[in-house]
Amino acid sequence: MSQAIGSLGQLTAALSLIGVLLFALMRWPWPGLPAGSLALVLGLDAVALSVLQDEWRMLAAGLVTAVVVELLYHLLRPSPARSGAWRWFAFLVPFSYLLIANLAVILTEGMGWTVHLWTGTAVMAGLAGVLLSFLVTGLAPDGRIEHDGRSSPDGRDGQGGWGGPDGQGGQGGSHVGAAGP
Predict the structure, then answer these.
(1) Distance (Å, rounded) from C-alpha 4 to C-alpha 10?
(2) Cα separations (Å) of 167 from 152, 155, 173?
(3) 73-107, pLDDT tens digit by residue?
(4) What is the pLDDT of residue 92?
(5) Mean pLDDT of all residues in the chain?
(6) Domain locations along the chain
(7) In whole angstroms, what is the distance from residue 90 CA to residue 180 CA?
(8) What is the Cα 161 distance to its own chain's centre?
(9) Is residue 46 a contact partner of residue 56, using CB atoms and an 8 Å limit?
(10) pLDDT value at residue 157
């Protein structure tokens, strides 16, 4: 039972990481983030967690993960418009995060999990990251967010207003004081 809880905890941490990164990359697609920004944020997170939990052995794993994520960002250049790179980034970030963390535990004190469990957890996290990438961008093959054509993706109706239920600029089709037939 404790192995299942540990595996779920790792999956939760990895998916939280990739979820935040995918939403940030939706907002600032390649090359929107400055060089080193992902490594800086993830590195500071690793330092803070190491200090708060007194787990210094995981500091090196967190810093290595931060560098790996930054390298993946620059090598793959993920953006919703490049769906292949987007999906690979969504797989490789949680996969490498868990692989590096589990290797750090194995090298420092050993792990009671079988190799199939800890590598399988990393693969499941990667696959769940890909599914999360579909949730963020939708199912359009080129990464574009689908919409019904009445309004632009940001909710505007194309005429300076915000589209209502009828697409008429937010009044919902019943105009107060309008003369009717």
Answers:
(1) 10
(2) 11, 10, 8
(3) 999 998 888 888 889 999 999 999 989 988 888 88
(4) 94
(5) 77
(6) 2-137
(7) 54
(8) 31
(9) no
(10) 46
Contact 58, 104 (CB under 8 A): yes
Q: Quick one: which of 23, 26, 34 has its CA closest to 70?
A: 34
Q: At 58, is the secondary structure helix, strand, or coil?
A: helix
Residue 58, both tokens: 């995981």
145 torsion bin: left (phi>0), alpha (psi -120 to 50), beta (else)? beta
Q: Which residues contact 2 (CB under 8 A, 6 or more apart)?
A: none
Q: 162 pLDDT band (50/70/90 cuts)?
A: very low
Q: pTM for the full model?
A: 0.70
Is the pLDDT at 181 greater than 60? The verdict is: no
Q: Which segments of 30-114 does DSSP mark as H helices, in order?
A: 37-53, 57-76, 83-108
Please, is 9 exposed, middle or buried when counting C-beta atoms within 10 Å of its C-beta (0-12, 13-18, 19+)? exposed
Peptide bond just before 31 cis, omega within 30 deg: yes
**How many residues appear in the chain?**
181
CA triplet 14, 142, 125: central angle to 5 degrees? 15
